[in-house]
Design brief:
The complex is a heterodimer of chains A (129) and B (168). Chain A has one domain: 3-Layer(aba) Sandwich (Rossmann fold). Chain A has 5 helices and 5 strands; from the N terminus they run βαβαβαβαβα. Chain A has helices spanning 12-23, 38-47, 64-73, 91-98, 111-122; strands at residues 3-8, 29-35, 52-55, 82-86, 103-106. By secondary structure, chain B is α+β, with helices and mostly antiparallel strands. Chain B has one domain: Chemotaxis protein chec. The longest helix of chain B is centred in the middle third of the chain and has 24 residues, at 82-105. Chain B is globular.
Chain lengths: 129, 168
């Protein structure tokens, strides 16, 4: 089994960091797609089979929370697991987000946290099983 | 006393984020001159919430390329575009700001952030409401220098007395 991942973040540097981390994690990754805001993320989801969405929250055009809400309204995307990686530090907001997504990681992150959280969310391991 | 505590928090957060996000070890350089924001590369992000303000990250020397190359895991002199380097600087100030405010106001406080941007002549600090400079952290990096500046309105003062007396 290989997993297709969509990374949604307005910072190209952050997207590259996350993608490198995933590629070096040893996880069975298939395609990794990118989007720079929530609207682009929804477009990618309409066009591609995605197993995991990794999304920032504070983005221009459409923020991550609006994208997540729209994903949850559509039959095709409502069950796709979402991992939020954000600078958000408010406990109130983080708790609200955690009710909508499978995982939350605060920036700055370590590669191990991303790998372990993806394993926990998807139930895969770094042997591809 | 309260200013010392705020400076400690700013130094701790800036050093920690530089180390964890950009894999850069920094050294406090309190005695050197401040980097002039209007004549160098600087990114900033403004916020609103229990208090309003902005955080500015100014770099000098070769710190801009050092930060961008380190964040992307590239060797020195890789020739990154200016856009990529600025993107790295904007992300860095965004993460510093996101980690700084809960340290000051507590984890229950809710802040809204604008998009980080590079400073311009018209917006030297993202600080359109003329909030005053409350704290400054001057750090030396391997290939350059960086300053992190916190601007805020006076509502910040209600939180300063509860900051830890010593840096942890």
């Amino acid at each position: 089994m290989s997993i297709n991942v969509l990374v949604v973040d307005d910072s190209s540097v952050m997207r590259t960091m996350i993608i490198k981390t995933i590629q070096m994690s040893g996880l069975p990754v298939g395609r990794i797609l990118q989007a720079s805001n929530g609207r682009e993320g929804l477009e990618q989801l309409n066009q591609n089979w995605i197993d995991l969405v990794i999304a920032d929250i504070n983005m221009p055009v459409m923020n991550g929370e609006d994208m997540i809400d729209q994903m949850r309204e559509k039959t095709e995307t409502k069950d796709i697991p979402i991992l939020v990686i954000s600078t958000e530090g408010s406990k109130t907001r983080i708790e609200r987000l955690k009710n909508k997504v499978k995982g939350f990681i605060r920036k700055p992150f370590t590669p191990e946290i991303i790998r372990d959280t993806i394993i926990e969310i998807l139930g895969v391991n770094d042997h591809g099983e | 006393m309260e200013n010392d505590r705020l400076n400690d928090v700013l130094y701790n957060v800036a050093e920690s984020v530089l180390e964890r996000l950009a894999f850069i070890f920094s050294v406090p350089a309190e005695n050197r001159d401040e980097i002039p924001v209007d004549s160098t590369d600087a990114s900033c992000v403004s916020f609103s919430g229990p208090f309003n303000g902005s955080v500015v990250l100014a770099v000098a020397g070769n710190a801009l390329s050092e930060i961008a190359e380190n964040m992307l895991g590239l060797p020195e002199g890789e020739g990154l575009s200016l856009d990529q380097q600025h993107d790295a600087l904007k992300e860095l100030v965004n993460v510093i700001c996101g980690n700084l405010l809960p340290e000051i106001a507590g984890k229950q406080a809710v802040f809204n952030f604008d998009m980080p941007q590079m400073t311009t002549e018209k917006t030297p600090s993202c600080n359109e409401n003329n909030e005053t400079k409350k704290s400054l952290a001057k750090l030396d990096l391997e290939r350059g220098r960086c300053d992190v500046i916190l601007f805020a309105n006076d509502y910040i003062h209600q939180y300063l007395s509860s900051l830890p007396a010593e840096s942890e």
